Amino acid sequence: MSREQDRTTRYQQGSLSLPGTIMLGTGVMIGAGIFALTGQMAQMTGALFPLAFLAAAVIVGFSAYSYIKISNAYPSAGGIGMYLHKAYGNRLPTAFNALLMYFSMVIAQSFLARTFGAYTMQLFGGDESGRMVPILGVSLILAAFLINLLSNRLIQGVASFIGILKIGGILIFGLVGVWIAGSISVDFSDPGEAGTMGNFLGATALGILAFKGFTTITNSGSEIRDPHRNVGRAIVISIAACVVIYTLVGFAVASNLSLSEIIATQNYSLAAAARPALGEYAVWFTVAIAMMATAGGILASIFAVSRMLAMLTEMKLVPHRHFGMPGSIQKHTLVYTVVLGLMLTAFFDLSRIAALGIVFYLIMDIAIHWGVLRYLRKDIKANAWVPATAIALDLLVLGGFVWVKLNTDPFVIGVAVSAMIVIAVAEQIFLTKFRKSGHPGHEGSHGHHHH
Q1: Distance CA 44, CA 46 (A)
Q2: C-alpha span between 428 and 149 (Å, rounded)
Q3: Cα(122)–Cα(287) distance, integer angstroms
Q4: Is the pTM of this model over 0.90?
Q5: Packing angle between helix 350-371 and helix 410-436, nearest 10 degrees?
Q6: Would you place residue 5 in the very low, low, confident or very high pLDDT band (cuts 50, 70, 90)?
Q7: Exposure letters 399-425 (e unless 16+ CB within 10 A, then b)
């Protein structure tokens, strides 16, 4: 069989070191979270937004437990798709939730791309027409696509390089911002009309979006050296690093901008916070970091997402058409992922993209914990109370978030619900047809299948 005809996915075992993995994880996490979410969270919950980041970290801590336990037991390159398969077998819950994860990752790319555009335009005095942000975002996704067609080594190299510059830059931003403000004085006295519990939960849900990058670490499980130990370590270190960085930046922004200013500049609040403190050079510095951060995030994200879709395809859980394209399945899923990301980037604004992402992600997350509780607990030696707590916390913030959105932007909740119905129905039809045509998938190779 020639290389052209061989459509299996190839992974290089042991090609990712622990520091490389941590850079990939933090790279994805710090990309979106801090640059665009800070302002959106402030808009939702007022001056309490640095606390919402901490609340999100606590919830993500509980969430990470299930992922670490499963990935220690079964390190795999497909991460989430494989976890769901272990729990639910070749059934609708696996396909549905894996696709939710897939779409939430594609959504995250569009989010990064729009953020890249919003920050870049700060160098040219903002984007009055509203056309440049999506154009820049679309160009960035295309550039990341081209790099992704090249090699693993290059992606890891570029991502690590950008990651180091970016994390260094953000730390400098946070420290200098807090130092210049003279005192960490955040005005907690007036939570505004958004001072309700629901709004705080909603902002916490957005904060979770800033941490969910840790799941990309699980997606590269089989490529990490000594995965049984290092996947868990990389996740813990990445989350801890992000807590420190987000809190610093949150306080730096809150100390240098009033709440109304943070909300007015919500798509580029870090650049705005740099302006009063340090002038135009600081804005350039911040924009440069934002550009690197979002670009690095997209690079790592496209890499992980296309891999996940390839795995679902190989597990016969999603329909796949080659559309006459040469090369491996992973190359095709890369193309699908990029096309989808381009469409979202072109037509949706930042806060709506974030809202879709968080709804999909939280529902998938709940399914993972339920799978652990219901089916995998004994196999992976997990304590029941941790995933149970994670489910309760997820439901709490999801409820708060949906409540806020129903009051402010019901359209986006409508889109989310419709999308989920379409995914569920389409998957059910596909799986039924597939079974009828006599392809059992690889049910036999897994211990669990539940009827």
Answers
A1: 6
A2: 32
A3: 7
A4: no
A5: 50
A6: very low
A7: ebbbbbbeeeeeebbebbeebbeebbe
